[in-house]
């Protein structure tokens, strides 16, 4: 496994981009909300200092697979400073990555918990926690250039796993020539990589759709461990 520092920062380009993301204040509504959440803490975390800033992606800079989520959780990533870390969605995601051999441990509690990812990068379409978990179209469009630049800094990237319809739509918007008609989101859906968008003029990353790993889906059985394990297995197979 590669030396990782705290993974997302190993590569100079990714490090520079992470600093830019973490200092962003483009969207007044999101800035206000993320900072309010960081002050009005959940009781279980009242003695902790919340991150309260935008979230950069993290993982293996040589990843062939990327996981694209919606936005940071209010008391997960907005608290811990690392995407999908410290909440139930992250518990489900990182346990699955561990079962797939893509993580060295099945849980993620904090930025310094020793979690290392192998051949996978985890990120989000929107970098600040949004009220009611609903970014506006303008906020989405303001933030997507960060995802475009971040994914472009992963030279081995072959597959993007889109968690939910929002991430699927965001990934389509990252295409230089979005397909028409626009493919609808469906769990397990696939879309071939955009021609000429990859390294050396080859095809861009394949898009692979999954229901989001939110409690709303995992607690109700809409998304089961077996279903998500199958998506990750497909992603690994496509990335070879």
Describe this structure in words.
It contains eight helices and six strands; from the N terminus they run H-H-E-E-H-H-E-H-E-H-E-E-H-H. The protein has helices at 12-22, 28-39, 77-80, 88-99, 137-152, 164-173, 215-218, 225-239; strands at 58-59, 65-69, 120-124, 159-163, 190-191, 206-210. The protein has a single domain (12-239), classed as Uracil-DNA Glycosylase, subunit E (3-Layer(aba) Sandwich), CATH 3.40.470. The longest helix is centred in the middle third of the chain and has 16 residues, at 137-152.
The gist of it:
The protein is built from 8 helices and 6 strands, in the order ααββααβαβαββαα. The protein has about 240 residues and is α/β, with parallel strands linked by helices.
Q: Number of helix segments?
A: 8
Q: How many beta strands in the DSSP annotation? A: 6
Number of domains: 1
* CATH class value: Alpha Beta
Percentage of residues assigned to helices: 25-40%
The biggest sheet amounts to: 6 strands, mixed
Supply the CATH superfamily name.
Uracil-DNA glycosylase-like domain
> Helix and strand string, N-terminal first?
HHEEHHEHEHEEHH
| CATH architecture tag | 3-Layer(aba) Sandwich
The coarse silhouette is globular
Q: And the CATH topology? A: Uracil-DNA Glycosylase, subunit E
Radius of gyration: 17 Å
Cα distance, first to last residue? 17 Å
In terms of structural class, how would the helical and strand content be classed?
alpha/beta
């Amino acid at each position: 496994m590669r030396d990782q520092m705290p993974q997302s920062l190993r590569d100079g380009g990714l490090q520079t981009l992470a600093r830019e993301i973490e200092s962003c204040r483009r969207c007044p509504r999101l800035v206000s909300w993320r900072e309010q959440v960081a002050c009005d803490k959940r009781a279980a975390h009242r003695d902790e200092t919340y991150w309260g800033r935008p979230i950069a992606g993290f993982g293996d800079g040589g990843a062939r697979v990327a996981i694209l989520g919606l936005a940071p959780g209010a008391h997960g990533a907005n608290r811990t400073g690392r995407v999908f870390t410290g909440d139930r969605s992250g518990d489900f995601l990182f346990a699955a990555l561990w079962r797939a051999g893509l993580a060295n441990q099945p849980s993620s509690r904090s930025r310094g918990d020793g979690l290392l990812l192998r051949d996978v990068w985890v990120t989000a379409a929107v970098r600040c926690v949004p009220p009611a978990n609903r970014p506006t179209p303008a906020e989405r469009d303001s933030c997507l250039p960060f995802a475009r630049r971040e994914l472009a800094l992963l030279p081995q990237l072959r597959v993007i796993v889109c968690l939910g319809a929002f991430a699927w739509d965001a990934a389509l918007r990252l295409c230089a020539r979005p397909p028409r008609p626009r493919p609808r989101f469906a769990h397990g859906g696939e879309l071939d990589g955009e021609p000429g968008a990859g390294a050396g003029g080859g095809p861009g990353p394949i898009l692979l759709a999954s229901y989001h790993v939110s409690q709303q889906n995992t607690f109700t059985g809409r998304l089961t461990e077996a279903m998500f394990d199958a998506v990750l297995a497909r992603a690994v197979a496509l990335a070879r």
